[in-house]
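Reopening this ticket.

The earlier resolution said the output was attached, but the attachment link was broken on my side. Pasting everything inline this time so it's all in one place.
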Amino acid sequence: MQQPDTQRRPYEGLDPGVVIAAVESLGLLCDGRLLALNSFENRVYRIGQETGPALVAKFYRPGRWTDAAIIEEHEFSAELAHSGLSVVAPLTIDARTLHEHAGFRFAVFPLQGGRAPELGVRENLRHLGQCLGRLHAIGARKPFANRPTLSLAEQGDAAVDFILDGEWLPPELEENFAVLADSLLDAAEQRWTLAEPVANLRLHGDCHPGNLLWRDDQAHFVDLDDCCNGPAMQDLWMLLSGSPAEQQQQLEWLLEGYRVFAEFDPMQRHLIEPLRTLRLLHYHAWIARRWHDPAFPAAFPWFGDPRHWEEVIGQMQEQLSALQEGD
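Inline output:
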């Protein structure tokens, strides 16, 4: 079996037959039903079994994480689940959670049903705040040793450098983008310093509504692939939406529940706009870094369109204003 080309076509060779063979190598018997689920960074499949419920198989992007980093993700998921949080953790099979087949690393998870939570409702946000307070109380016990720490340098400076080093920006927009990015990161750093010293803890890392499943009036956390060390606010701000006043009210409702289980430093409110800035820049660098994967040009055909980058510059200008206005 030819090994995957992690530089050009990272999932070449990962066809349905290989997916099923990988799962059956663990002693599971598939019934032939296989459905690709929505995922760009990894490849994720719902797989039926001859006996028992359907499972989810997640094939990790080659070259992205070390084995140690993936195992830390799995251990954190298990630690949270063992503490009573509803977290979809990988199954342990043959005393392992991380497996390998045909050059691909993968894990198998139970299938969790549910829908995106309805945000903006006080009781829902209080419940989510309680869950995140519990998650962070556990996350504060020790740091990750093999996973990244969220920072302006890694998420911001590196992202801007990668975009500018590529051929994504129309020539007439390059200087405008570079100058605006410098101003954005300078303003983000100034706001970040207002929250210092910032305590870092183990986080979900990508706690947006798509990674939360709501069922039976309970939140279920999925996909800890981006778990990292960082400030508590990283897991809170992506649950806020609407006008500044609406977001302020939503944050208060979240914190009503959060403070039941964990302390919250009110100075971390200063981090909302810097974190939003980092996500904007990192998202575009992420697409650029993955462009060699055939799934990305197909999913993001607008990425090289000058009109898209004009819109990005407009978003950056709006974000700079938000940083400069303050809380």
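Reporter confirms the inline version is readable. The first strand starts at residue 30 and ends at 36. The CA atoms of residues 171 and 198 lie 38 Å apart.
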